[in-house]
User: What shape does this take?
Amino acid sequence: MKVTLSELESYLWGAANILRGPVDNADFKAYIFPLLFFKRISDVYDEEYEKALKKFDEDKEAAAYPENFSFIIPESSHWKDVRQNTKNIGQAIQYAFRAIEQANPDKLYGIFGDINWTNKEKLSDELLINLIEHFSTKNLSKENAEPDMLGQAYEYLIKKFADLTNKTAGEFYTPRPVVHLIGNILKPKDRDLIYDPACGSGGMLLEAYHYVKSKGGDARTIKLYGQEKNLTTSAIARINLFLHGVEDFSIVRGDTLRNPAFHEGDLLSKFDVVIANPPFSLKNWGAQEWAHDPFNRNMAGTPTDNSGDYAWVQHMISSMAQPNGRMGIILSHGALFRGGVESKIRKELLEKDLLESVIGLGSNLFYGTGISACILIFRIKKEAKKQKKVFFIDASELFTKGRNQNFFREEHAKQVLEWYNKYEDLENISKVVSLSEIEKNEFNLNISRYIIKMDEGDKITLKQSLSEMLQAQKEFEKLQEKMVDVLTKQKVI
Assistant: This one.
């Protein structure tokens, strides 16, 4: 019997609640996601075996051929094998995980992470039995839980874990309406190569996948690439993509700025769409190595080790494909106006005329930081009307106030997209600015320099000031006429 989305969400959250107490909230994801994936592939294996039996007229030997299965599950490593254990449950789980990874090295190597399941102080046999039994209450075959639905439930759980661990959640979760906005601006399409160099849990890559599907495209033709420094988070991203039914992707664990994973020799791989929400103002990111970067990513200069913002920007620009490469990056607002070497880098990048748009967002929208952020949109080749110009949008007032955090909603994303598509000056909201004007401002991209907000009171004050100035001008002209007349009569002039 098919499970509903609400049933799946309750089911997954119930599993997390079993861990409360012995396991810290911040660690829930490291335990729940691998078990969920284990249960899913075991149920799908059984489903595929039954289909193969029918296909081969109940020939069990033929039905067991590896090519009949999405993933190989070795003997004694199935969910039901672990469930039969009544002691040393953690050891049985760990054995199954390693066996499955080894049997599927190309697809599943390292996907279950490096959690120590045999730590009985944290994971007693009783707790793990309860967890296994809870997961066993639902059949997660494809027929019972289609990939899109299971993927939605997985995303729900990612969001719940992000809410639980607000301060540290930024490393793996970007608010989805922000992600949707960037996807709608960049418009990925069939056969595009999509890349996220700081992919977190894979949300931005999935946005590209879903965008193509939503527009009637063949999402199977796009290829997704991501790199993520954190081991647990990179595994979560891979599980996320698998559970959504994505097949053609490559997620690599590693430090993108020091050791980019996607390259051929000293040439970075090129992608049609490059998207990322990298860590804001990352310190100790690898400036020393970048001073002699073999991939020539420091085209506009090497930032200091105090902030890696423009290292990410230059890495992503270097990763855009000709001629239609486009990119969206989320940065801290300070990246728009900080001085020193960042000012010089902005100058170089602006002179290359790659920056299309700057979108300012409100404060306290992202997990782990209360600072304001912005979205920068770059294109290898801008439309003719957008060349030598930058389009500024001030969306800083679009949010719903929350007690501990503000929220950027889908209706806010739709409004910003509408402004973006209009590409025109709107009072208090947006402005098309020439590069020559930006140059006069010393290549400062602070939005308030170009969009000066005025409320009704400001407008009245300005109107009054203008009226007073014009009146003063008239009085000055009258006095000037009198003075000229007097001086003329006295033959001074």
Notes: The radius of gyration is 29 Å.
